[in-house]
Design goal:
203 residues, mainly beta, 9-stranded mixed sheet, 4-stranded antiparallel sheet, 13 strands, 43% strand, disordered N terminus, binds 2-acetamido-2-deoxy-beta-D-glucopyranose, signal
Length: 203
C-alpha cells in the first residue's frame, strides 16, 4: 500500500507539471539546497534545445532520488553533469502518434483502487495486465537524444554511473532516446533551506 501511495504522489507531481501550462518551474530540494528548475516538454518547448542532443556517456551521473520524481513512473530519469534532468525512453520504443503529430511513447500507469485518474475513461483509454487495470498514455517526444558510448548493450535504465567491468570496447555505439521531459536548473540563485553554514565554511 505504501508503495502505491508513493507511486500516486510521484505521478500526481509529474501530471501537475505536464498539465498546468502556467507552472513550469519546479523546485528541486537536494539538501541543503532548493533549486528552481525550468521544465520543458512537448507542450512547453520555448527556449528548450531543439533538434538532436548528443552526449558522451561520461556526462551522465546517477540521479538523486528527488530528481527522479520529475518523471512519470516507468520512464527512465537520467541526470547530467550540467545538473539537467531528462526523462527518456529508447527511441525504438516510440511510435508515431497522430494526435500529437510526432513520435510518442505508448506508456501505461497502474490504476490505484478508486483512482480518480482512471475514472470515467473509455475502454480505449484503459487496458489490463493480469488482474491490474492500467491507464494508457501517449507521451510525446519533444526532443531526441543520442548517447555515444563504447559500452556494448548499454542499458540506460540500470545505469548507475559505473560501467560494468569488461563491457568497454573500442567501437563507439550511438544509443538513441526520446526525451519526454527536460529539467534545466534555473538562473536564479540556489535557495539554502538548511541552517547557517558550519564555522569552517565561513570566510
Ligand atoms: C518555488 O520556490 C519559490 C521561491 O521560494 C516560490 O516562490 C515558488 O512558489 C515555488 N514554486 C513551486 C512550484 O513550489
Ligand atoms: C527531497 O525533497 C523534500 C521536499 O520536497 C525534502 O524534504 C527532502 O529532504 C529532500 N530529500 C533530499 C535527499 O534532499
Ligand atoms: C505534422 O508535422 C509536419 C512536420 O513535422 C507538418 O509538415 C504537418 O503539417 C503536420 N501536420 C499537422 C496535421 O499538423
Ligand atoms: C465521472 O462521471 C460522473 C458522472 O458523469 C461524475 O459525477 C464524476 O465527477 C466523474 N469523475 C471524474 C473523476 O471525472
Ligand atoms: C526523433 O527521431 C525520430 C526517428 O528518427 C523522428 O521521427 C522524430 O521526428 C525525431 N523527433 C524530434 C523531436 O526530433
Ligand atoms: C553499478 O552497476 C555496476 C554494473 O552494472 C555494478 O557492477 C555495480 O555493483 C553497481 N554499483 C552500485 C553502487 O550499485
Amino acid at each position: 500500500m505504501a508503495m502505491r501511495v508513493l507511486w500516486l504522489l510521484f505521478w500526481l507531481q509529474s501530471w501537475y507539471i505536464n498539465k498546468d501550462i502556467k507552472n513550469y518551474i519546479w523546485n528541486l530540494t537536494v539538501l541543503p539546497l532548493r533549486r528552481p528548475y525550468n521544465i520543458y516538454n512537448f507542450k512547453h518547448q520555448t527556449d528548450a534545445p531543439t533538434g538532436e542532443i548528443v552526449l558522451p556517456l561520461d556526462a551522465l551521473i546517477p540521479c538523486v532520488e528527488n530528481a527522479t520524481k520529475l518523471c512519470v513512473p516507468g520512464v527512465t530519469p537520467i541526470c547530467t553533469t550540467f545538473n539537467e534532468i531528462m526523462c527518456v525512453e529508447t527511441l525504438s520504443a516510440s511510435t508515431f502518434s497522430e494526435s500529437y503529430n510526432t513520435t510518442c511513447i505508448k506508456h501505461t500507469i497502474p490504476c490505484l483502487d478508486n483512482d480518480p485518474l482512471c475514472r470515467n475513461k473509455t475502454e480505449d483509454e484503459l487496458t489490463t495486465e493480469g488482474d491490474k487495470t492500467l491507464l494508457k498514455l501517449d507521451l510525446p517526444c519533444f526532443a531526441n537524444i543520442t548517447i555515444n558510448s563504447n559500452v556494448a548493450k548499454f542499458d540506460i535504465a540500470s545505469f548507475n554511473g559505473t560501467v560494468p567491468v569488461g563491457s568497454v570496447g573500442s567501437f563507439t555505439y550511438h544509443y538513441h532516446y526520446c526525451v519526454v521531459t527536460l529539467g534545466v536548473p534555473g538562473a536564479e540563485n540556489d535557495i539554502c533551506v538548511a541552517g547557517p553554514p558550519p564555522e569552517s565554511a565561513k570566510s
